[in-house]
Amino acid sequence: MLTDLHGEIIVKEAIDQSRTSFDYDPQDYAYQEVQRLLDSAIVLLKRTDGAVDPTYLGAGDKIYNGDRTKWLKLAAGMLALNLNHYSNKTAYDPARVIRLVDSSFAGNADDALLLYPCTSTDFADCNFWGRTRNNITLYRQTQFVVNLMNGSQFGGTVDPRMSRMLAVDSAGTTYRGVDINAVGFGALTVAQRPLNFFGYPSSGGLGLPSRYIFADRSKIPVLTYAELQFIKAEAALRMGNQATALTAYTNGIRSHFQFVNDRGTEAGNPASITTATRDSFLASPNVVPGTLTLSHIMSQKYIALWGWGHNELWMDMRRYHYTDADAVSGTQVFRGFTPPNALFGDNAGKVVQRIRPRFNSEYVWNRDALNAIGGLASDYHTKELWITQP
User: Fold this and answer.
1) Rounded to whole angstroms, how far apart are CA atoms 89 and 233?
2) How many helices (H) and strands (E) does the chain have?
3) Is 292 exposed, middle or buried (0-12, 13-18, 19+ CB in 10 A)?
4) Where are the alpha helices (DSSP H) in the chain?
């Protein structure tokens, strides 16, 4: 995640306590190090000689309670995710990505979920997105994600998950999102403004039932079965295997419906989407077509990761250069996405590709190392990552 956010990062010298400045390593080295660590983890987690002690591991394991087999699946899934990022490289091996996904999660029960008991008096163990932590109370959904779910981008087929994931407007009549090119709520009247993520106007919702992943005790994923199925679908489609891609794509949507229901129950809003409603949605050729395209897969993956899988979603958008068109249908891969009209002056008209290093730790204390990688350039944050280049 660190290298996906910043590109070049410090790896080799990161914990060398004899140094006061640190050289950056190229992104391809960081990716190879991730693969080395995961390959090693997979070898060790396959041991059945008792060396992986579930009691010892479980003492500090808040995800799988010391279950070695589930950690093994997670390692395979994380490696699949890593290798799928190579999609613009000649070294991309979609068949290996698929094999790793097949060795990973078998269903939602395997999802790697972070638990938030929210019992501490300082609220440190509450969900970061929850109303008590107050980190996103002033934020609102954008029109882009609303249009992915309200039928605008899928032939008029409304997504049943929208009412569980997104917030209705303050009048309680329809779903709207803010305009990324407008300040605040822009032209939206008070009645048209979307409720907050917890389902209340203004800053309401403290101590009240919430929604989806935005409750104080909502579980937040590290990796899900749905995400891996969309990764498999993309890899299969790139191999030209429509049947495998379509099955994985459908599995991804179906399992995310269950994910939405489970998170809604945790948030105190247990009105689950029925199986019949889910199946009716999947029966629509606008959603599950005869010929699957990347614009179907990546847009539905965006919905499934919305609200929590920010890093993977941003990597996906950069891999497809934000507005690439699907080679088969001509439809934009991320349906309906438009970059902001007004960009920061230092962007020089280019969209962002990376986050600049932290100012008072790098630009003050590690300036020579930044200069060596071009990090002092005013438009450094628009420099394309190695992993997204051919």
Assistant:
1) 18
2) 13, 2
3) buried
4) 2-6, 27-45, 54-58, 68-84, 94-102, 143-149, 162-165, 225-239, 242-266, 275-282, 294-305, 310-319, 367-372
Sign of torsion, CA 240 242 243 245?
A: positive
Q: What is the pLDDT of residues 99-158, one digit of tens each?
A: 999 999 999 999 999 999 999 999 999 999 999 999 999 999 999 999 999 999 999 999
Span 174-198, pLDDT tens digits: 999 999 999 999 999 999 999 999 9
Q: Could you tell me which residues are beta bridge partners of residue 20?
A: none
Judge contact between 3 and 381, C-beta under 8 A: no
The two tokens of residue 290 are 């005869």
The CA distance from 294 to 325, in Å, is: 9
- Do 377 and 367 meet the contact criterion of CB atoms below 8 Å apart? no
For 351, the token pair is 């969209």
pTM: 0.97
Name beta bridge partners: 308.
none
Q: What is the DSSP string of 195-226?
A: PPTTS-STT--TTS---TT-STT--EEEE-HH
- Distance separating alpha carbons of residues 237 and 364, to the nearest angstrom: 46
What would the 3-class secondary structure string for 227-261 be?
A: HHHHHHHHHHHHHCCHHHHHHHHHHHHHHHHHHHH
Let me know if domain 46-342 sits in CATH 1.25.40.390.
Answer: yes
pLDDT 10s digits, 64-76: 999 999 999 999 9
Q: Which residues contact 276 (CB under 8 A, 6 or more apart)?
A: none
Q: For 51-65, how does the pLDDT look when each residue is reduced to its tens digit (9 = 90+)?
A: 888 898 899 999 999
Domain ranges of the chain: 46-342
Rounded to whole angstroms, the Cα distance separating 1 from 13 reads 18
DSSP SS3 for 28: helix
Tokens of 329: 């249908």
Reduce the DSSP state of residue 25 to 3 states and report it.
strand
**If you count them, how many residues does the chain have?**
390
